Amino acid sequence: MSQRKRLSASQSKAANQRSKAESDDEEDAFTQPSLSQVQRAKESFTPIQIDRKVAEVVQFILIKDQRKIPIRRADIAKHVIKEYRAIHQDIMKRVIHTFDQVFGLKLVEIDPKSHLYILVNKLDALPEEPVSLIPANPKHGLLFTILSVIFMKGGVVKEALVWGFLKKLRVDPGERHDIFGDVKKLVTDEFVRQKYLEYVRIPHTEPMEFELRWGVRADKEINKMKLLEIVGKLFDQEPTSWTQQYREATAAGSQSQR
Predict the structure, then answer these.
(1) pLDDT on residue 30
(2) Are 239 and 252 spatial neighbours (Cβ–Cβ below 8 Å)?
(3) Predicted pLDDT of residue 223
(4) 95: Cβ contacts below 8 Å, ≥ 6 apart
């Protein structure tokens, strides 16, 4: 076996060991406590202490969410909940309630297996006018534009189509942009890690080709009917003009209300 292969095997083994350790840590952190353990924990902490811990968890999640990277439940336990683990369920219920009632946000578990969470702000109040590439947050404008293209093209598009569309808007993925920097990295790395987009290789393509789809965060946050209404205004048409998209938007709206 060559040195490179041995190194690769060693790195893969180390990565698997780290992943297993993280999984073990999470299992230890969230093993279901007995009723007696929960009761003892509740008696050990004052209401003020529990209130403070709830506030700490809320603050931790808000800070983590600034990067829009999914938040691991194990990290919440390790860095914030700590000795309050026996009553973590009660704490998290209050955290969820606080986000809902105080911040108008929803804490959503997007991966039940890995226990990853995101904060969702339902974009029911999307702007009445079409989104510009230079809104208050330019990156959001670019993202919304890409999501619109994907949605109107049936939910999946080759990346070449997206790059071609952006070039028409003078946003060239092959050149460094004054506002967005490395456009291709922003779209295929940052937006993907934030779960707004999925960047998937198309099988059996040579040279390799990739396609873009909506990510789970986009599905949770973006109101497809509002998006379709904005596109309709751009083309001076009713949303019902696009039968497939209108049907999908209606179905998505019905699901979100359940």
Answers:
(1) 55
(2) no
(3) 85
(4) 54, 57, 58, 61, 107
- In whole angstroms, how large is the CA radius of gyration of the chain? 22
Dihedral (CA of 71, 212, 223, 244) sign: negative
pLDDT tens-place string over residues 50-60: 888 888 898 88
For residue 98, the tally of other CB atoms under 10 A from its CB is: 17
Which tokens is 16 given?
């698997």
Phi and psi at residue 72, in whole multiples of 5°?
Answer: -80, 135
Strands (E), the chain: 71-72, 106-111, 116-120, 156-158, 176-177, 181-182, 197-201, 210-214
Whether residue 168 is predicted with pLDDT greater than 80 in this model: the reply is yes
CB 193 within 8 A of CB 69: yes
Residue 102 has pLDDT above 90, yes or no: no
CA distance 115 to 180: 31
Q: Does the pLDDT at position 93 exceed 60? A: yes
